[in-house]
Amino acid sequence: MTKKAVxxxxxxxxxxxxxxxxxxxxxxxxxxxxxxxxxxxxxPDLVWIIRDIATATVCDWQDIFSEADIVVNASGAxxxxxxxxxxxxxxxxxxxxxxxxEGTRTKFIQISAAGVSDQAPTEFFRSKARGDARVMSSRxxxxxxxxxLVFGAQAYGGTALLRAAAxxxxxxxxxxxxxxxxxxxxxxxxxxVVQVAQGELGGCFVAELAExxxxxxxxxxxxxxxxxxxPAWSTQVAIPGWMLTLSGRCADxxxxxxxxxxxxxxxxxxxxxxxxxxxxxxxxxxxxxxxxLGESLAQMPATVQERSFARxxxxxxxxxxxxxxxxxxxxxxxxxxxxxxKAVLTxxxxxxxxxGSAVLGGSMADLxxxxxxxxxxxxxxxxxxxxxxxxxxxAAGTLLTPHLWADPLGVFVKVLPSMVLALLVTLVxxxx
Length: 432
What we know:
Strand content: 5-15%
Strand order of the largest sheet: 3-2-1-4-5-6-11
GO molecular function: protein-containing complex binding
Keywords: Membrane, Transmembrane, Transmembrane helix
InterPro entries: ComplexI_NDUFA9_subunit, DoxX-like, NAD(P)-bd_dom, NAD(P)-bd_dom_sf
Distance between the termini: 34 Å
CATH superfamily of the largest domain: NAD(P)-binding Rossmann-like Domain
CATH topology of the largest domain: Rossmann fold
Shape: elongated
Radius of gyration: 26 Å
Largest sheet: 7 strands, parallel
Number of helices: 18
Number of strands: 13
Organism: Roseibium album
Number of domains: 2
Protein name: Putative NADH-flavin reductase
């Protein structure tokens, strides 16, 4: 009889790998996520239940889990923001799930993280620890898996940032030289989930999943750079702590604009403390073998796609910042030079009222686009708006002041690169 599995966070980096591994072993899988468009893009053939995990009730979970033999909780968030609430996702939701499963024989697999504890330096680990504690105190058939740094062929979040750091040109950034890091390939984590789901290892245990060896963060970055095919840096520059702290604070602020930057304070504090685990319990139970970093990298050779992504990853925030600054300044200068801009239009035969309205409207549109592009949910729309408005400016300018195409300062010509930059941002904006 085919066993049925429900995977929460099924279109995430870890969740999607678990879905595929369970399907390969013959499980009937249903995914739970909060975005239908993302779900259908990542796993279009999967049966989906669209719910906001953070707000789902016990009754919701009872309906979702009604026929499940296995529940895999691969949902999670790094830090509080407009799109995420750590307590709601890591604790409140887990409490509701456990209540919904009380009295059933469903196996509950909680994917947590190595290093969780009530005294951990970040709320990510503390909230994960509270959720784990609720699972462990239940009467369910439960297992808690705590992986270390998870990476795979897909670049996402912290692993994407690692690739970008490894591909940094000319000079290597050196941060947290004493931090020790262990890794696990996402496919090995998915195999571990399948092994637990098949009941081979029993239940009611906590196991950390990690490779045998460990390396410093600079060594990890150097290995990834060699994997990408770049020569070793001739020079590395230590990044001072205050700069990392400032970067974290800036990334935290961007979190409230909808961006999930891997540079947020929680991630940096976790890295500073080291990302390590003890795989002895997993080994003693007979768990699947977990590959070392070098072996994993050798089995997924880097191509031009990986190198291109690594270089582009750090350029995206720079491109968005440049677009925002360009349009904000354009709007501000239009208002400051209102009279001069109006005079250009009236000089072409427009009425004063129409010319003033055109200058004011254009400046306000510029300011709106410059602000909107900073909000994650509006970035793509704002970029498309920038392209449309720029095209409108050029069309109107060509009709009214065609001589400006030959202006030595490139008044019209300089608009074209900004349109291309906005188009580029729309094409590389996806994070899954």
